[in-house]
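Quick one: structure tokens for this chain, please?
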Amino acid sequence: MRWLRRLLLLALIVGVMVVGWRFASENQQPVSVDFVFRQTGDVPLWQVILVSFGTGAGLVALFTLFGGVRNGLARRRYRKAIGGLEAEIHQLRNLPLAPDSGEPHIPIASKARPSRQQALAPEPDSPGGSPPVGALPMGGASGRNG
């Protein structure tokens, strides 16, 4: 199987060389390339095409490398964040479910701020109770009766 791969690779290399030789022999016309501040002398067309192709491939490789480095750094940052979060989860899983002291266990949900109905309910120690916070006077928002 290894010899078959080598044979196919050799055939591919020979094929590329034959195509390149034929391409170069058919594109011998001299051309001059005008750059912004400079002009080349007469250069064979196949060389201009080869240099243009190589320059484009090099730029694509450079941009791909830049994107790969950026993605690698982002992946590293996310892996570190995930590691920290997993360590926090592990630490929280190892916490005891009930406190060791004689204090009663108060669930976290009851320590939260009171619901809207609890906040608006009158206090039990006041005789008539005070109006709920945010309640409007009898006449509506403007305070006028009628």
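Strands lie at 30-31, 43-44.
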